[in-house]
Amino acid sequence: MILIPALALTACAVPQVSEPETVAVRATSLNPAYSSVNAQVLSEAGKVDYSFAASLDPNATANTLTRLQSSYTQQRGDESLRVGDAVSSVGMWGTSVRYGGMQFGTKSETRDDVINSSKLASSGMAVLPTVADALFASAGEAGTNLSQQNLSVNRSLPSGDQGWNLAVQDALGHSESVAAPMISRTRLAEQGCSDFSVGFGKVRENYALTSNSYGPMFANTTVTCGAPMGFTVEGHGEYLADEVAALGFGVARRIGSIGTASVAFAQSNAVGGGSGWMSKVGFEHTNSLFNLMVRSKFQSREFRDIGSMSLNDPIMQRDLASVGVNVTERSSLSVAYATQTTWARERTNLIAVKQSMGVGRGTMSMSAGHSLEDNFGSSVFISYKRPFGTLKPMLRPAVDDLEELNLQLPQTSDEIN
């Protein structure tokens, strides 16, 4: 009988079991030919992330499981330390690449216009293209970094509320739709230099084709500071062993109600290619009626960054522009234009127009696209989207949705092509 109260006191003395770590498993793609699975272990101390691709086809003779990326991330306030696979940071200029190593800082996301898909397999060095790169590749431009990575792009026209459609096919023949702006917004920093990222390691090669293929040593850093008088000053550098080193800076400032202006300059030194320079200028304006975004890039024949090391015909000039107008409370008009000239005088021009208007309880979108070159045609796309269920009040189109034509395959309830 004495054992009963003793056992009760012992039970009270046992420390309370803490809540277990959260385990999340997500299948982003699931079909017999190709499946992509991501597993995460989350806790207050950090996060373990592991993803892989596998074939569920029992008749497949090749390797049925390929590691995509794995990493451990520890968060301390606004700063994070990541060990394992990561994507390098870029600022107003530069190239995002996949690499394995260490990344530390406050910048944990890529620039908005970078196509950062963890499922797209690519040959060679794992360079992440921008939306502008994909647009010009979709127009049939040869010798781009996408074609050299065995990535192909099929461009259709804007649909729904998202604008351009791009379907990217990777080195294994798998297709994926992408959604990202053609022009990314300029980030203005608060006072001080608390916005930074530094990373080093080895670049990934043959991403999603092999599990553990790494190339030469890589390093990059981006530091953004809020300077007096409202200026944002940014420094960015990137290095690839025995290939190229590039270093540059950028300056941006909001000019009252006129808009935000930015300028960037960089210089590179490539092994066997000499030194070169690159400059970028940009402007953006947003108000309740319309918005405007413009970016221009100029560079010398010798300039190289990590993403353009293998190009035989580098870019001489690239201009991007987009305008969005709220015509009425339920009607908007968007226009996007992109042009590029290489040092071999190959010129490509792309233009697209989209109009959206409210029709009944839904939205009608009419889009047209055209290439000004002789080897590419024109087409028109019409879609209608109508919600089902409870009627919600129709709101004025958001200015952010109009700032330019985004890229995404249509996801509408009813469509007419």
TrEMBL record:
Protein name as annotated: Uncharacterized protein
